[in-house]
UniProtKB/TrEMBL annotation:
Name this polypeptide is given: Matrin-type domain-containing protein
Keyword Nucleus: yes
GO cellular component: a single term: spliceosomal complex
Native organism: Linum tenue
Record key words, sorted: Metal-binding, mRNA processing, mRNA splicing, Nucleus, Phosphoprotein, Zinc, Zinc-finger
Length: 555
């Protein structure tokens, strides 16, 4: 039944919406421990990956490169080669549905909600070593061994003792995030390049396991959106690139580090990269990279916008002739985009430049290698900044272990495991409350003596509140000022004053209100009897008598 393309599209949209609601529901649960928080983050990460892969399939369907979606819509509308016949298409579809139910009479409806709810209960498998302790600490022992067995990892204070003495692991934790302190000559070796690459891969992998939801989209939007839009044009193309790039954790981390690449490019041009800039004691000043990346230019006119000087420097670095007009220089440099230097005609090269071409290519290759190593160092420094708290915890843990014996470390590890198991058991265990005592602030039943002290076993019913029950004298006295009781008094047209405290019966409240009204009627001031008037002779009358005498003409 779901074999049609339109049904597949509908089911994919439904899956995306269900996963979005599950993510919201997942974030509404507050994790009680760091392990639960880590599992929650990975569950959400898996849901996001599923959404991205499903969205990628939807993009391919909407692109409709094989025109299958268009043909299916046309078939539903009854469009055939002979003409348009809506009724025949309708009855063909009806026949197909009936045939499906005839072949599958025992087909049952599957509750999809239960299947998706199971995603909230699964525990993703996260691989951590024993030293990492579920992401609390770093495990750099392999990289430490690689560091101390290399030339760049030997102490530089005393050359005679450098072969026998090595730095300790605790000292290495302070040094691995500071690659700018290593001599530049040692950085150009293949051994250092492999070490830096291994260090970067471990930090990226650790960061993916411990922080799968760490601000990657925000960094991506700041750096990469405008580049893709300017290069390709259009929001639809950018959405496709974003969808395809988020399919794996590796690409996510790559885009997270894209901002580091942008900052590094600016610092490299200015010669301000730590450990690689000019005027340092680590080595000579690196040659300025005067090459132009021709991949960004499609025509000679675009290349002419670079300028005379830049074109001249780029041609000189390749050993080509630097003379001519702006257009001639751009055309000469543009030839190298599709044609290797070895296959260019001799007329394009300067005199005696065959050997310099080879030297320039070697220097350019060395500069590119240096740039790649420096870029890896910049990424390592950025990741160390993001993992600064974890690095500090690792240092404290290593120092703590150095002061403990093996038996003490084992006992401490067992205590931590038992504590974690007891916390999980407390969360899963049902609360034993046979007396049905009220819950306290900690989510557990209050003590029985406190229950008896406040008289919480006494029940007070209020008829005015709709026979609502109040447990304990304190709650009963407090309810006379609460909204439920005030609303009941308003429905009876009786003011909720202090006179009606302790009265819960409707009849008693009405009788009391009548007595109050009667008492107010006796003491009420009556103007016809109590208001005084005086005639010309000084006689005093009340209002009624004065009015009667005046009507009779006696006054």
């Amino acid at each position: 039944m779901s074999s049609t393309l339109l049904e597949t599209t509908r089911a994919s949209h439904e899956e995306v919406e269900r996963l979005e609601r599950l993510i919201v529901k997942e974030f509404q649960n507050d994790p009680t421990s760091s392990k639960d928080r880590l599992l929650q983050s990975h569950r959400v990460r898996n849901m996001i990956d599923t959404i991205v892969s499903t969205s990628h399939k939807l993009v391919d369907i909407y692109e409709d490169k094989d025109q299958a979606r268009k043909d299916e819509i046309a078939a539903l509308g009854g469009q055939t080669a002979s003409g348009t016949n809506v009724f025949s298409a309708f009855y063909d579809r009806l026949k197909e549905i009936r045939e499906y139910h005839r072949r599958h009479p025992a087909a049952r409806v599957v509750d999809v909600d239960e299947q998706y709810e199971a995603l909230l209960k699964e525990e993703p498998v996260i691989e951590f070593t024993g030293e990492e302790a579920h992401g609390k600490y770093l495990d750099l022992h392999e990289l430490y061994n690689q560091y101390i067995n290399a030339k760049f990892g030997m102490p530089r204070n005393d050359k005679k003792e450098s072969e026998d003495s090595h730095i300790e692991y605790s000292t290495y934790l302070n040094l691995f995030s500071q690659p700018q302190k290593i001599d530049r000559k040692l950085k150009l070796t293949m051994q250092y390049r492999e070490y830096t690459q291994n260090l970067l891969e471990y930090l990226v992998y650790f960061f993916q396991r411990t922080e799968p939801l760490q601000d990657l989209d925000k960094i991506f939007s700041k750096v990469c959106i405008w580049r893709h839009l300017l290069k390709l044009g259009g929001y639809f193309d950018f959405f496709m690139i974003l969808t395809r790039s988020l399919q794996s954790h590796t690409s996510l981390t790559f885009y997270c580090l894209k901002q580091v690449v942008t900052e590094f490019e600016e610092q490299w041009k200015d010669g301000k990269v730590p450990g690689w800039g000019g005027g340092q004691e680590n080595g000579p000043v690196p040659a300025q990279d005067t090459s132009i990346d021709l991949d960004y230019y499609t025509t000679v006119e675009e290349l002419m916008q670079v300028g005379l000087e830049k074109l001249k420097e780029a041609l000189a670095s390749l050993g080509l002739k630097t003379g001519g007009t702006l257009q001639q220089r751009a055309e000469r440099l543009f030839l190298t985009k599709h044609t290797p230097l070895e296959k260019l005609e001799k007329k394009h090269f300067a005199k005696g430049s065959r050997l310099p071409v080879q030297n320039g290519a070697a220097a350019l290759k060395e500069n590119i290698n240096s740039k790649e190593v420096a870029l890896m160092e910049a990424k390592v420094i950025k990741l160390c900044t993001l993992l600064s708290e974890t690095i500090e915890r690792t240092k404290e843990n290593v120092e703590k272990k150095q002061a403990l014996t093996y038996e003490e470390m084992e006992s401490e590890r067992q205590e931590e495991e038992m504590q974690a198991e007891s916390e999980s058991d407390d969360d899963d265990q049902q609360i034993y409350n046979p007396l049905k005592l009220p819950m306290g602030w900690d989510g557990k039943p209050i003590p029985y003596w406190l229950y008896k002290l406040h008289g919480l076993g006494q029940e007070f019913k209020c008829e005015i509140c709709g026979n609502y029950s109040y447990w304990g004298r304190r709650a009963y006295e407090r309810h006379f000022k609460e909204f439920r009781h005030q609303h009941g008094m308003r429905c009876l047209n009786i003011p909720n004053t202090k006179n009606f405290n302790e009265i819960t019966s409707i009849e008693e409240a009405k009788e009391l209100w009548k007595r109050i009204q009667a008492r107010q009627g006796i003491n009420k001031w009556r103007p016809d009897l109590e208001e005084e008037y005086e005639d010309k002779e000084g006689n005093i009358y009340n209002k009624k008598t004065f009015t009667d005498l005046q009507r009779q003409g006696l006054i």
